[in-house]
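Quick one, T. Sequence first:
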Amino acid sequence: MSGFFDVYSIIFLIIAVVIFMRLGSVLGRRTGNEPSPYDSRVKSPAANARNDNVVALPPRERGAAGPAEAPDLEPLSRHAAPDTPLHEGLVAVARADPGFDPDHFLVGSRAAYEMIVTAFAAGDRAALRNLLASDVYEGFVSAIAERESRQQKAELTFVGIDDAKITAAEVDGRTARISVRFVAELITCTRDKDGHVVEGDPTETQTIRDAWTFARETGSRDPNWKLVATEAV
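Structure tokens:
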């Protein structure tokens, strides 16, 4: 009887191990449906939390058309009139990246804008590193270091974004680039080490107009975009 018990114990143990391994393989796999940190339903992460996403685009289902097939033009036409350079650029991006959705992209870019200007004002290098391309990151960090060398501190209240509009799109090799024009409302000032305002106004809302360009490698498994260029409008 003890031998009978031991054999069945071993069989049940093997079954348990197999089930555990299969669960692990599923739970440990990214499906593409994880919530983006830029999803409006998800709060922005803490400044010290690791976040490699800038603009994470939700991929289509596995049965979606591949890059060689024609993209859905209806969502693209909401952002650019057909037969215009912008529309052709968006079509090129959609062909290279079948998961591209301009509406979701703009939601992500708006969130990225707020996170970047807030991190810059706070001097949060860790947050900026995950949001910016390397050369843009170096420029931002250089400005932060200069501000710190003068013993000055930036203050910023992000009021909101009045408008965000895609103004240009292109695919260069494997790199997709999309430019967005932002119109944002900010309250910002810079104080010296004694707390005196040396620039800006802590009581006045300013309208800021920026043109930012985001890019990503379309052949990469990483769906995230990073800021590669900034320009004041």
